[in-house]
Structures are given as C-alpha cells and as structure tokens.
Amino acid sequence: MSVLTKPTDPDHAFRHDAFVHESQDEYVARSVAFLREGLAAGEGAIVGNTRDGLAVMREALGPDADRVEFCDVGSFYTRPARTLAGYHGTFLGQLQTSRSVRAVAEYQLGPTPADWEEWAAYEAMTNVSYSHLPVWVVCTYDANGLPDPVLESVGQTHAEMLTDGWHESGRFQEPRELVRNLTPEPRPLPDLRAYPGGDDLDVFRVLLASELVAQGVPDAKVLDMLVAGTEIAANAVRHGGGITEVRLGRVDGRFVCEVVDRGQGFDDPLAGYVVPRDEIGTGLWVARQLAWRLEFFHSPRGFTARIWS
Amino acid sequence: MGLLRAAQRYDPRFDTPFWAYASWWVRQAMQKLVAEVTRPVVLSDRALRSLAVVRAARHDHLRDHGRDPSRNELAAVTGFTVAQLDTLLAIELAPRGLEEALSADDATTATFGQTIADPRADYEYDRVLDGIEMQEVRDLARALDGRERSVLSRHYGLGQSPQTLHEIGDSLGVSAERVRQIEAEALKKLRDAAAQPRIPGAST
Predict the structure, then answer these.
(1) ipTM strictly over 0.90?
(2) pTM given for the model
(3) Of these four, A33, A111, A182, A290, which has the most CB atoms within 10 Å of its CB?
(4) Which residues does chain A have within 8 Å of residue B137's beta carbon, measured at their own beta carbons?
C-alpha cells in the first residue's frame, strides 16, 4: 500500500489534513510511508498517539524510529488549550533541527458527545493556532472505533482528506465560525457572590486568593488562578475601562471567578487559543493554559470574563 | 395464574359474580407478565395503574390537540406531581442495551452507551484530567525560589493565615515595597513558565 503525497513546501503555511483508516494495518502503512517521505526530504517527523499506538508505530518504523519524535498524547489531551500547547512545544522542538515537520496524530475520543464537540472545535482551532508554522499534520481517525458524529466532523475541520489520493474534503468550514457554533453558550450563574470592582490588581488577587483558600482549593490551583485571574483583570483594566464587579463562587464542584468590565469587549471564539506571536495574545493564552475553562460574554452587568478553576 | 388466584380468594358472601371478580385478577396477572417481559424492573400494581392513567391522559390530549402534552399539562390532568410523572415516564421508556448500535447501518460501530453522559463518571474523568494538570502546575511552581514561594504563600494565605506586605517585610527584614517586587517577580515567573512552549513527555 502506498501513500500519495504532495511535496511539503518548507516556507508554506501550516497544513492540516485527515486520514480515516479502516484498520490498524492501514493506519500504520500509510502513516509510516508519509513520515518516511518527509524524513527522506530532511523534514522532522512526529507521531502523536497513545502508548500502545506509539509502540506499534515504533516497531513499524524500524531504524527510522530513531529520527522520529514519539509523543504520548495521554499527558496533554486534557483539554484543547493544553493540547494546542503540547503539540506547539513538540513542533518547535523539531523545527530547531528541521526546516519543516510532518506529524501523524491519532484522534483521541472523549467520553461524551459534548467532549466530541469540544474536540471538533479543537481541530478547527488547530487551523488557525499554528498557521504560521511550516508543519504538515495528518490527523488519523479509526473508522471502526469512533462514533458517527465524530467521523462526520472530520471533513469540517480538515481541508483535505486522504483516500486514494489527497482530495478536498468539500465540507471544510471557516474555523472561527465552526468554533463559535460548537462552543456552548455560557449559562447564567446567579449564585456567585458579587464584590465591588476596582483597578488595583493586588487587591483583586488578595480577594481571589482568600475565596479560593476558603473554598478549599488546593494551593497549586490557587497559584494557577492567581496568574490566570491577573491576566484577565489586567486586560479588563487596560482594555476594558476598568473592573466594575468581581463575582466568585463554586459551581459544579469548580471554583468560578467572573471579572466584569466597562468596555465593549470582544467577540472572538479563538481568544486565547492562538499560539502567541511576538508576545501578541500571550495574556489570554496563559489564562487558557492555567484555567480549566475561560468564557467571554456580554451580560446586563457588562462584558464578562469567566474563569473556571 | 390470575384465574387460580381469583378462585383462591373468591368469597361468594359478597354477592359479586365470579366472572367479574376473576377478570380483575386475570387482567392484573397479564399486566404483570407484560411488565416483566418488556421492562427491566417489575412494577407494582399501583405503578401500572398510574402508568395507565398517564397513558390515557396522553392519548386524550394527543387526540384533542394534535400534539403530545407537556409535563405540566399531564400533571394538571392526572393529578400527579411533575416529579412523579418524570419517574413514571422514565419507566415507560423502552430499555436499550449499552452495546446496541446507534443506527441500523451495519457500517457504524457507534453504540448507544457512547451517547450517555454519566455525571459521576464525568466528574471522575475531570479528576483524572485535573490530576494530570496538577502535576504540571507543580512543575511550574518549581520555577520559584524559596523566598518567592514563601512570599506568595504568606501573602495569599496558602497553608497559613494571610499576611500583609508590611508583615512579611518585617519578618524578612526588607521593606513592603521590596516584598511587592519579589511577589511581582514570582508571578511573572509563573506566567512565563505557563507561556513557555513545553515539549511533553516525548522521547526521540
């Protein structure tokens, strides 16, 4: 079985395609051929999979495995922001020694339909987040092990798909719109306690920390929230005309902090999901890395950033 | 079985014809049998009668209005509370196997069980993910030296009562402003550590 590929232009922008395989043999054969072609051209190579999947690929690659980076996705497939950061680090590691990189990344199935949508959104984000990198990622999907809704979303998030050759998926959707459609609307949280706003970030952090500690949040998570909260609060002060209200409390077992500002806010479903370039976007990227979930929305109180620990 | 039970219990002193008395027991026995073979749990006679009332009300509403009644409409007609109705309607649902295919299409491997969210399982799943991330957070905190860690812990009350910058400064023999600078530096280190690209547990 051969893989039909097109040359990777090292200077070309990010490429993100998909391959739906019917068997492990097909996955291995085509993935190995794809990576070997890149290695022969001096490109870097990455395999992202579970430990079992990595073991199979390592064996199939034989001596070539020494030139491939094997990425155990179990450690960073916790939520999209972390996965984006995980692969970003891996790409950069390879790009230190190669002009361009090829990666084969096996899709990881979440436990619920809501997770499937969240990870479909992640695939859409990928198209934008890495768009500046000379990397060609082929996401692989097990046709016999994945629910139909997941398989149906593949064409929406990948521009081209590998069948008997590379073909346009024909169903590709503009990533921002797709992420917007797949992101659940923030629900009202009326039980949060409201505190007066203010622009002193130290006062904000002391308030946040005292509530986090009172709620029994572990110290490491408190530090996370302090850093994430500082980024959000600083944004509200710098770009939102100041903080009008802070709302805190526990919802669904998680600690929640809302920062309400005076500004017009923004409407970007990818805020914080795009790899920072020249320090642009670093604040929200950091907040997304450290918070369990970030939500931005307009409410009668004003533009609101909601941080879940 | 219903007929036998009727014969055992029939008391001619009440002047009730045997056929009328027996028909009640036969119907009950048949309802029980149907319940046993169609539902995962055996229902009491009372539950079966309640279900019959709900079913009849639903049928009447559908006939009169051309649509299914809402839960509130059903509650108003039957006299059950919405909570009772929910329980009864849940019993009415046909049981499905977790391994049952989602569609009749032979090509699909998705199962009904894959569409069910178990809140408790979700919570446990979140805890696993939290655990993975907590490990990385601890790694971030390693970016701090002892004094920075101490200042953050004391100012924000981590594992102790919170202290003001002045109190911390007094104990360290430095000014409150110097403590503020140490804290700002510590927060910046945590931020930088979070922003820095990470190469995950990969081997080459």
Answers:
(1) no
(2) 0.72
(3) A290
(4) 220-221, 223-224, 290
